[in-house]
Design brief:
Layout: E1 5-8, H1 18-33, E2 37-40, H2 52-64, H3 91-100, E3 104-107, H4 111-123, H5 139-147, E4 153-156, H6 158-165, E5 170-175, E6 179-184, E7 192-194, H7 202-212, E8 217-221, H8 225-238, E9 244-248, E10 251-252, H9 268-273, H10 278-286, H11 301-307, E11 318-319, H12 322-335, H13 338-345, H14 359-369, H15 379-382, H16 384-387, H17 396-399, H18 402-414, H19 423-438, H20 444-456, H21 464-471, H22 473-484
Parallel strand pairs: 1-2, 8-9, 10-11
Antiparallel strand pairs: 3-4, 4-7, 5-6
Helix pairs in contact: 1-11, 6-8, 7-8, 10-12, 13-14, 18-20, 18-22, 19-20, 19-21, 20-22
The protein binds glutamic acid (GLU).
Length: 485
């Protein structure tokens, strides 16, 4: 059996997109499940759109998601370099090999000539296919074009490759996800594999790299299907083994259009900045096309890898439900180990002076505020009254009520007897405080509304005993006095 080797090959023209993250994840899961290798290759041949910032973002995002690669630009490997721009000297010799075998030819057409061909096709309402004008140039004709100062590009001859390896114009392959796919290749124009400036185009570089890196399975988005037909012919023309392909459906926004900024975050780093946990993101993204064999959707990457089967992936598009992601993120926040939550949450509390609390106290604050939140960014609002004096404007009416006029002064009377050295004791004291008013016909809920409003400026929030304990007696007294004013 051939070794399983898969790869993710992002182009660093932007931050790592959530769709690319899903492709990476499915490759990673496929490698895990089959004891294979997961490889990272940076496809930076488009120098104008590439930036180091994006390369760093790709590295950081994949790492944050736990999708660690076995071979890649930073960790190296047997088949490096793993960055395309460092591989430029590899491509010309394979292009030359194809020319010698008769599967590629020099093309001297100028951009203006090609534009004219396209316009002509447009006029005749024909899809544009390159005319093959340069396929059969004689040595003499080439010589004179060179003398004019023209530099040739190299084009791949679709028809020659198709004829050499197939009985008809139809090229078919068995896709791991989509089943049988086929295409009439007479509709594909001969395409450039090496530009006149000596750099390879995507469809060529990707084949040479996948071939040299011994990639066995190529799992990527279905937007690449049309490229796959071109690439298969290149493999065949080179006499190389053709890898297996699996094309994933697209990820669409809830309105079924392409997922874009206007729907919300799209890059992994944006989700992280908004307070999504990478564990939740990975779990959520796995469900875009894959379903667990049991009904339990919340799963770690290792659990998913055990259950993963590429042939069972849905071939249709998936809808990116932000609401479901929020729900799932909330589940992760609720169950997260508290010290880990502390590490993740502190960047979201930057606005506040957190130094007045110990780490232990901050952890308790997070423990009592995490229940309703779905993203960590909500913590800033939900913990505000622990760090700042409350804004009482929203609860003004409540503080002026008859209940408040009774329960708040009384709190000041009894607070000296409350046991501020233990949260447990405080819970008892507050229960007694409620009971005292209950006997006078004020519902415990109402007593607490007034008390909470005075201390936090809100009618809902964390456990009141914990709030009183963490804020301390002096602060509580001060807040109640302010509220009474
Ligand atoms: N660099 C290509 C992309 O980001 C890779 C496509 C492929 O997997 O072949 O779309």
């Amino acid at each position: 059996m051939t070794d399983i080797r898969v790869r993710i090959a992002p182009s660093p023209s932007g931050n790592l997109h959530i769709g690319t993250a899903r492709t990476a994840l499915f490759n990673y899961l496929f490698a895990k499940k089959n004891n294979g290798k997961f490889i990272l290759r940076i496809e930076d041949t488009d120098a104008e759109r590439t930036s180091q910032e994006y390369i760093d973002n790709i590295f950081d995002s994949l790492k944050a998601l736990g999708l660690n690669w076995d071979e890649g630009p930073d960790v190296g490997g047997e088949y490096g370099p793993y960055t395309q721009s460092e591989r430029f000297d590899l491509y010309p010799k394979y292009a030359q090999m194809l020319v010698e075998k008769g599967f590629a030819y020099e093309c001297f057409c100028t951009p203006e000539e090609l534009e004219a061909e396209k316009e002509e096709a447009g006029k005749n309402k024909q899809p544009y296919v390159y005319s093959k004008k340069c396929e059969n140039l004689t040595e003499k004709q080439k010589e004179s074009l060179r003398k004019e100062g023209r530099k040739p590009a190299i084009r791949f001859s679709i028809s020659k490759a198709q004829k050499a390896f197939h009985d008809s114009n139809i090229l078919a392959f068995d896709d791991l996800v989509k089943g049988n796919l086929h295409q009439d290749t007479s509709l594909i124009g001969d395409f450039v594999i090496m530009k006149s400036n000596g750099t390879p185009t995507y469809n060529f570089a990707v084949v040479i790299d996948d071939m040299l890196m011994k990639i066995s399975h190529i799992i990527r988005g279905e937007d690449h299907i049309s490229n796959t037909f071109k690439q298969i012919l290149i493999y065949e023309a080179l006499g190389a083994d053709v890898p297996r392909f699996g094309h994933l459906g697209m990820i669409l926004a809830p309105d079924r259009s392409k997922l874009s900024k206007r729907h919300g975050a799209t890059a992994v780093s944006e989700f992280v900045e908004k307070g999504y946990l990478t564990d939740a993101l990975v779990n959520f993204v796995a469900l875009l096309g894959w379903s667990p064999s049991d009904s339990e959707e919340i799963k770690t990457v290792d659990e998913i890898a055990q259950d993963f089967d590429i042939t069972k992936i849905s071939s249709s598009n998936s809808i990116f439900e932000y609401d479901k992601l929020n729900w799932m993120n909330g589940q992760y926040i609720k169950k997260m180990d508290l010290t880990k939550l502390y590490d993740y949450a502190m960047p979201f509390l930057k606005k506040y002076d957190t130094s007045k609390y110990t780490k232990e106290q901050l952890i308790r604050i997070l423990e009592v505020t995490r229940e309703p939140i779905t993203t960590l960014s909500e913590l800033e609002f939900d913990t505000q009254y622990f760090f700042e004096k409350p804004d009482l404007s929203e609860v003004k009416e409540l503080l002026e009520s008859e209940t408040s006029k009774k329960v708040l002064p009384y709190a000041l009377d009894v607070i000296n007897s409350w046991g501020f050295d233990s949260e447990e004791k405080l819970h008892e004291d507050m229960a007694n405080y409620r009971e005292y008013f209950k006997a006078q016909g004020i519902k415990p809920k109402e007593t607490m509304w007034s008390f909470r409003a005075a201390v936090t400026g809100r009618t809902r929030g964390a456990d009141m005993g914990a709030i009183v304990y963490l804020l301390g007696k002096d602060e509580i007294v001060d807040r109640i006095k302010t509220a009474l004013k």
